[in-house]
From TrEMBL:
Species annotation: Didymella pomorum
Region feature (Disordered): 106-128
CDD domains tied to this protein: fungal_TF_MHR (cd12148)
Protein name, per record: Transcription factor domain-containing protein
Domain of life: Eukaryota
Biased composition (Polar residues): 108-121
Length: 580
């Protein structure tokens, strides 16, 4: 009887498999070519038959063509909807990008638009015509990743895969702590068995905190063991703690990651005995921790592909080019830091040093691939490269501008221009990049790096509103500067829904406004601002804050200042009004 039951059991399995293959064959045979090719592509990428069929049954591959999510052509700039006149200079290449031109073209009928069928993939206009957060990551290997094999926080495979997809499209594009392909391959091939029981950890009822505490606990279980994956986890933990306002706690993880890297000799040439996969993991981790030729081996970086709504093509994010450009920028930033702070005391850079650094920065930007050219950029991670470049350049010339204001002799020239002229040109392009990015993508999607860009631009704007002699105040009108301040405040409020640091920084900018400006701009500021009611311990320095001592520019000091202002304001509001 036992043998007979086993035979029936095996028969049922074979019957089910046969039915699945028959259904798959019928799908390929009867579906339109583009849908059949999508099924074949998923199979070639390693998707098992059940996951492919499940996608078809659930409509993930085909019904999405008839459902249109957020695809608006543009967002409206706050306070003043038009692009400020002082940015519309003839040689501003960011105004010639298809992304900017598309936002101000009159609406056209769908028949006038170029479709993917009419245009080769290289000329696909989706990244220029639709916001990035409307796109979905296309990664078939995720079909073989299951929540219960990696976490006790959630059991829903769909949610688990969705969270990984969001991470790849938003976080991984800016902070590349590990190779995406190796990461997903390992998740699909080697389930983790040592997951602790969260019920015993006293977890708070918050999904983000649950994942954070679980990751922290798993990492601590292997503390003292030097592994690549432990280094990756430490970098991720530090990044999450940073934007949660706990960078002081997060510093420990990066310090441990550096120790592990030295133990593994990651900063030395990889041993010849390593196969190509292990070599790539070692090299990628070394570069990610320190923070290579893209055109020769783009797969080395682990590309991320996305599909936009109603599109039958997939689009590359070109992360290899983004990563290479970002690392080259960080190398120059490191050299600037060594010149100014290596001796333990801050030194002002000489004119010759500034000129040499400017030449290196300009050379780097001129050598960018076409995808990252000013007139071609489309995605937020592309804009981040240019924004970071302009912030470095603007800061580089700040010392020269201040020094020459107090000197009677003629200003030093850099390539035929004064430091002030260069800084003004840099500012114009910096603000243009921020506004053009907002027009298409807004700041509504998670982007930790945007905190620095928004606070830098916001501080410049608010300083200009209270100082008529500032360089920005001389470039444009007070109304335009107010619109810039609102753009930055609302951007930080949007990010506060993902990161507690956004709450602090948005409150900081609002509190810096003069009462007259606060009253005028109040109805234009997003009402979604959150309360400062969270533990906070961060020595992060904030950019472009004018202080006498370095510690006054840290987030801890800003938080203390904002809380004191808030308490004083509440006390003033609660004072009884004397009767007449």
């Amino acid at each position: 009887m036992l043998v007979q039951e086993k035979i029936h059991y095996l028969y049922d399995i074979l019957k089910t498999q046969n039915e699945a293959y028959a259904e798959l064959f019928a799908l390929i045979q009867t579906r339109p070519d583009n849908e059949s090719l999508e099924v074949l592509r998923r199979i070639k990428m390693g998707g098992d038959i059940e996951s492919v069929l499940r996608h078809v049954r659930d409509g993930d591959l085909f019904v999405q063509l008839s459902v249109e999510p957020e695809t608006r052509l543009r967002y409206n700039l706050p306070y003043m909807d038009s692009m400020p006149a002082f940015l519309l200079v003839p040689d501003n290449q960011y105004l010639t990008t298809p992304l900017f031109e598309a936002t101000f073209e009159p609406p056209r009928s769908s028949s006038d638009l170029v479709t993917p069928e009419q245009s080769p993939p290289s000329k696909c206009m989706d990244p220029y015509m639709k916001p990035s957060h409307a796109a979905e990551v296309v990664e078939p290997i995720l079909d073989r990743v299951y929540a219960r094999q990696w976490t006790n926080v959630i059991a829903n495979d769909g949610l688990f895969r969705r969270l990984i997809s969001i991470y790849l499209s938003h976080q991984h594009a800016t902070f590349f702590w590990f190779n995406k392909d190796l990461f997903l391959e390992d998740m699909a091939a080697r389930p983790y068995k040592g997951i602790p029981d969260l019920a015993k950890l006293g977890m708070p009822d918050n999904l983000q905190n649950r994942f954070l505490l679980e990751a922290k606990r798993l990492w601590e279980l292997e503390l003292g063991i030097s592994r690549l994956t432990s280094i990756h986890a430490a970098l991720v933990l530090h990044g999450v703690l940073n934007v949660s306002g706990l960078s002081t706690v997060g510093d420990f993880y990066t310090s441990e990651a550096i120790t592990m890297a030295h133990n593994l000799r990651l900063f030395e040439p990889a041993p010849a005995r390593l196969n190509l996969r292990l070599r790539r993991g070692h090299e990628f981790t070394a570069w990610a921790l320190w923070l290579w030729q893209v055109d020769v081996d783009p797969d080395w970086y682990g590309e991320v592909y996305v599909r936009y709504p109603l599109s039958r093509t997939i689009t590359r994010m070109h992360l290899g080019h983004v990563m290479k450009a970002t690392i080259n920028l960080r190398i120059i930033m490191n050299d600037i830091s060594l010149l100014q702070f290596a001796s333990g005391e801050q030194k002002e850079l000489t004119s010759a040093q500034v000129l040499a650094l400017e030449t290196r920065l300009d050379s780097l930007m001129q050598k960018l691939p076409p995808t990252l050219a000013p007139n071609r950029i489309s995605l937020p991670c592309h804009f981040n490269v240019h924004t970071e470049y302009y912030i470095i350049l603007h800061s580089l010339f700040q010392g020269q501008v201040v020094a020459h204001r107090s000197k009677p002799e003629p200003s030093q020239l850099f390539h035929g221009k004064t430091a002030l002229e260069i800084q003004n040109e840099v500012y114009i392009r910096f603000e243009t990049v921020m506004r053009v990015r907002y027009l298409r993508h807004s700041f509504d999607a998670y982007d930790a790096w945007s905190l620095f860009f928004l606070i830098y631009l916001g501080n410049l704007a608010i300083d200009s509103l209270s100082n008529d002699d500032s360089t920005v105040a001389k470039l444009t009108t007070a109304e335009v500067i107010r619109s810039t301040a609102v753009l930055c405040i609302n951007g930080l409020i949007s990010q506060s829904h993902f990161m507690y640091a956004g709450t602090l920084l948005s409150c900081s900018l609002i509190e810096q406004l003069k009462p007259v400006d606060k009253a005028r701009l109040g109805r234009h500021i997003s009402p979604g601002i959150r309360q400062i009611d969270h533990p906070f311990d961060s020595e992060w320095p904030m950019p472009n804050i004018k202080v006498e001592r370095d510690e006054e520019a840290t987030m801890n000091y800003i938080l203390k200042d904002v809380r004191e202002l808030s308490i004083a304001q509440n006390a003033l509001e609660q004072e009884p009004v004397p009767s007449s």
